[in-house]
Amino acid sequence: MIKRSLILILTLLCSLYTMAQEGVWTFSGKVVDAKTRKALSHVSVTDRNVGTVTNEEGEFTLKLKSEPTAVVFSCLGYRARRLTAAECKALEAEGKAVQMQASSVMLSEVVVKGVDKPRQLVEAAIDKIDVNYPQVPNLLRGFYRETTQKRSRFISVAEGVVDVYKSPYYKSDWRDGVAIFKGRRLLSQRKSDTLAVKLQGGPVLPVHLDVVKNREILLNTEELNNYHITYKGMKQTGEQMAYVIEITPAVVLEYPLYNGRLYIDRETLAFTKIELELDMSNEEKATQSILRKKPVGLRFTPHEMSISIDYKTDNGVTRLNYIRNVIRFRCDWKRKLFKSNFTVISEMVVTDRTEGEQVTSIKVHDTFNRRDNFYDKVIFFNDPNFWGNENIIEPTEDLLDGIEKIKQKLK
Q1: N or C: which terminus of the chain has fewer CB atoms within 10 Å of its end residue's CB?
Q2: Which residues contact residue 376 at a Cβ distance below 8 angstroms, ignoring those fewer than 6 apart?
Q3: What pTM was estimated for this model as a whole?
Q4: Would you state the pLDDT for residue 52?
């Protein structure tokens, strides 16, 4: 079942630093905490429709077709920061980072009493999904990346630009799907790096892991009955405040449940962020939820499967913005001494979108099947200018270093 299998086909590919094209307005920089100067990762950087997110080192590059009125930076727990085009260029020229102020919230007794029944708050937010989220078809352009690490060493990288069709949120639609616009791959050729373990998903993340649209995963009465639901206070999400609702398993079922947090906008009751982590207390159940198949004799031990989904609100409509999926596990062969720890991280950021009744769905023969292997669908790389004007998530220093090491081995 889709709602029980929320992972990713282990796949590969890669891209290096993107070069700006002539006639495109670009802004490169770093985002840090104003007080601690610590780099802030997964910060949304956007001019409204077009955007990206910062990498683990807080770095980003934003490419726009024309000079923007403003660039907005938003991140959970921080006040949104809005910069004009001139301010952006001044920071870039001086080599200064974009600083964001952490928010501190004093909760009044009145506010706390307003959510003394958190289950009802979640149900009210579910009832408003049809109003708060897109009511017309959307065609999203996104940047997708998968990386696989064996211990601390990268053994594969896969990246691509994808198109995502999403029907209105008030209905399910079989036409929702993903097509690969362009992509690259890179794979270590070491025999010891061969890992014939297939994890479910691929770049279908924005379709199958959009918990707000696919309410059968969590946001329905039947599933909510399986959880303890607790109010945990309020937190800044961009320019708005959000209620923080914690969920923990309340029953034992044949499939694993989640520990997680739901962030609900105080004014609109829109879900602005959802964080879920698969319950690993039963190893066998967790494995069944994550793993599709493996070679005979290979032992698979799951350690973590977490999902983070960010939504962004603009002109009263809340839309999917960023999804990140992390899987950590150990593999070892029977009768062999050594065990290897692996980490698979997949993420997609929406970099552009068009919407309206004129938007058409992706043709069936172009749609990426969730059982396909992303690695088989894209090409090897060698062109440093491959991404052109597309917005991507900048690679971190350790990822770039890992890419270079794989390339040297391939040579």
Answers
A1: C
A2: none
A3: 0.89
A4: 97
